[in-house]
Amino acid sequence: MALLFQGPIGIRSIGVYYPENIETSVDIANQSGIPEEVIREKFGIESKHKAAIGETVSDMCVKAAQDCIRGVIKPEDIDLIIYHGSEYRDYYLYNCSAHIQHKLGAVHAKTFEVHNLCSSGALSLQLTKSLITTQPELKNVLLVVGTRESDLVDYKNSRARFMFNFGDGAAACLVQKGYEKNQILETEMITDGRFAADVAVYGVGNVNYHKNKIVDKCLQNGEAAEEGSIGYYGLDVADPENMKVNLDPISLPNFCKVIARAVEKSGYGKNEINFLAPIFMKKSILGDILGEFGMTENQSFILKNFGHVQSADAYIAVREALKLGKLKDGDLVVMLGAGTGYSWAATAVRWG
């Protein structure tokens, strides 16, 4: 029986890819009919990136991966690739992680995928640490995330308003066995399955498959479609008001719980956090979280010019914070995520 690896496991590097096209708060206002000031102040969006036509999720992931490993390791040195990005990718029901492996030239890498929506980033860091601890052959593990879920958001659909902040892009994170800097500590997660079916692309999947087959047949024959059939293939919310009523009272407390517990499990006190790498959220909610832990806005990064880039948000926050000089050796960093369904997750990292 192989001995568990007892040494450090750290984040060696983070790479990003931001599409060139920019969608501004004015663009969103014009398409949605919502005042531009509301988009900026209430939705928290000034601008976000939009993938070009033909620019696939796997393309963006490869560009982020190349940015991540450039000057650090070669693609053939990667032992494992874990894709934890959007389930909306190049094709329906296909292996995006293997496609990324091939395009990147990581010929020796095994691959698999993790899908837990936008909480997958924090969760995948802990999963990677566990795998490296137990699998002797793993030294270099590359996490990749990409999304262009903005394709699925209809600005005319008022039920989908909370998704108007969705932005496109990709990020990659190289986790390395024996790397003494940026050590991955502990993770905490909360799931509340009451919200599991509140947000979905209801037109795809086995629940409505047969209804849609009937619709297709009716359309082909020039007949009226069955009442109640599903013909919308964008992201939708079944009952926005009900979701808001049930989610609002628990969301902030659950964010605070996973942060506090991840820090505690890592051997720190709740007031020892130096930097919070958040998922995209309203500035007011971020302020409430920071206040709970005795932190200031300068100890985080507001994603107002990126939008919500699925589970890439925390990577983007760390990458941009490094550019701004917000992180220093010895800092306790918490990487935060949350995904519809509904899950909240946080992973602590000792930086430097």
Essential attributes:
352 residues; alpha/beta; Peroxisomal Thiolase, Chain A, domain 1; 3 domains; five-stranded mixed beta sheet; 9 helices; 13 strands; 31% helix; globular
Number of strands: 13
Oligomer: single chain
Structural class: alpha/beta
The radius of gyration computed from the alpha-carbon positions, rounded to a whole number of angstroms, is: 21 Å
The CATH topology of the largest domain is what?
Answer: Peroxisomal Thiolase, Chain A, domain 1
Ends distance:
33 Å
| Largest sheet features | 5 strands, mixed
| Separate helix tally | 9
Q: What is the CATH-assigned architecture of the largest domain?
A: 3-Layer(aba) Sandwich
Please list the strands of the largest sheet in the order they lie side by side.
1-7-6-4-5
Quote the beta fraction: 15-25%
Q: Kindly state the mean pLDDT as a whole number?
A: 94
Specify the CATH homologous superfamily of the largest domain: Thiolase/Chalcone synthase
List the helices and strands in order: EEHHEHEHEHEEEEHEHEHHEE
Poorly predicted segments: none
Q: How many structural domains in the coordinates? A: 3
Description of the molecule:
The chain is an alpha/beta fold. The protein folds into three domains: 9-181, Peroxisomal Thiolase, Chain A, domain 1 (3-Layer(aba) Sandwich); 184-196 and 238-350, Thiolase/Chalcone synthase (Peroxisomal Thiolase, Chain A, domain 1), CATH 3.40.47; 199-237, no CATH class. It is 31% helix and 21% strand. It contains nine helices and 13 strands. A five-stranded mixed beta sheet has the order 1-7-6-4-5, with helices on both faces. Strands 8-13-12-11 form a four-stranded mixed beta sheet. α3 (57-69) packs across α4. The longest helix has 26 residues, at 240-265.
